[in-house]
Amino acid sequence: MSTTIVTVGAAPLTPAEVVAVARDGARVEIAPAAFARVAESRALIERRASDPAPHYGVSTGFGALATTFIAPERRRQLQASLIRSHAAGTGAEVEGEVVRALQVLRLQTLASGRTGVRAEVVMTYAGLLNAGIVPIVREYGSLGCSGDLAPLAHVALAAMGEGEVRVAGERVDAAAALAAASLAPLVLEEKEGLALINGTDGMLGMLLLALADLDVLFDTADIAAALSIESQLGTAAVFAEDLMALRPQVGQATSAARLRALLEPSPIVQSHRGPEDGRVQDAYSLRCAPQVHGAARDTADHARLIATRELQAVVDNPVVTLDGRIESNGNFHGAPVAYVLDFLAIAVADIASISERRTDRALDVARNRELPPFLADEAGVDSGLMIAQYAAAGIVSELKRLAVPASVDSIPSSAMQEDHVSMGWSAARKLRRAIDGLARVLAVEVITGSRALDLRAPLQPGPGTGAVRDLLRQEGVAGPGHDRFVSPDIETATELVISGAVRAAAFEGGK
């Protein structure tokens, strides 16, 4: 576990703090001021619990059963039954980092003092995180409205000492894991079961993780493009700052600046600069890289704005207002998050598409400016990177399918009480798969561009692109030569892309 400590309940969590808890195992602590808010709102709930008039989630059933009054002696059973019945996920296990993101985001809402839970609930959720107890959550079960009900219910079930969890990767009974961590199973009181499952935490957590990944991948897309442009004897002149200023798109300017920084010092680019260069203009996949990459950057910035707002939200139903009312509301609807998850999937698919087109150009003897066919050592005997491009093309095709929005596919549930849902969880799940695909497509372009650079010898690449090429060679990714087993090279390059090592080599090692 990380030695970093993230404080919950003092101010809204930042994206970096959520990622630190989810991905790096940072510990959490509860701000002292949070306990006063929690106690105050819990007192309101307890007063309403003794009121003979029905109050949703406190003394009634849920969803379509909201008008069913529940007697006080049955309310613990009501809350436990809610969790058990809603823990209805199915399919493959969800990644541990996603579950931890979901846990810490729900903890933030519980610590807000707007949900009406007891301090014991807050402390138990913090204890689960700090003990490294990761409830097993299943792939399918959330419609993204009334929150991510099934995923959150699986976490709540574990807090009750039921179901299964993972600790240090080992699958164990939740009761045993709680006992080993000296945590008492929760016995839920009025309103608490509902407070544990009514939120957009799963989809928001996946959005925050995706944005962290895309910060790396969009920079890497610029690097991959620079490798392709340089090795295909393209021009950097079209990325000039004054040309970019004619279209003041922020992301475009950022990508163009990165391309200039990588390409302008390159001896290969310098070798054909000037009037002796007979090429009028490069193909779109080379020339328009900053326009496409920049649009993706701007999309991510919009998604980050929505995510930052959602991090400031208290999502529960009913919710305890600042002036002490207990009110039903619709803030659990995941539409704001679902839309940007789908928007990002479109951007990811297009970045991968333009990357694959640059790779294809590098392998085509008719377009790669005197490089060998498929960058093969002995064309005919060797196939070079022919099938690596097939792999990239296959991924791009899937990414286009994954770009179809999930958020337009509402389906009614709960006897038509919940008759419009966001499908935000589904949007997040497909975005995670798309991001993995983009990393692999970029890895193929990085491998291809690096091999093409070697084939331009004795001309030398720029410092940044050369550092990327050298990184691949140091990690065992093959350069020019007779055919070898390609798949391990792609896997190695993919890890270097995802980890940020390619980005670091280009922008730090290349200085």
Automatic annotation (TrEMBL):
Pathway: Amino-acid degradation; L-histidine degradation into L-glutamate; N-formimidoyl-L-glutamate from L-histidine: step 1/3. The keyword Zinc does not apply. NCBIfam families: hutH, PRK09367.1. This is Histidine ammonia-lyase. The gene is hutH. It is an enzyme of class 4 (lyase). It holds the Pfam family Lyase_aromatic. GO terms for molecular function: histidine ammonia-lyase activity. The keyword 4Fe-4S does not apply. Its main location: cytoplasm. It is found in: Cytoplasm. It catalyses: L-histidine = trans-urocanate + NH4(+). Keywords: Histidine metabolism, Lyase. Belongs to the PAL/histidase family. Its EC number is 4.3.1.3. InterPro entries: Aromatic_Lyase (IPR001106), Fumarase/histidase_N (IPR024083), HutH (IPR005921), L-Aspartase-like (IPR008948), Phe/His_NH3-lyase_AS (IPR022313).
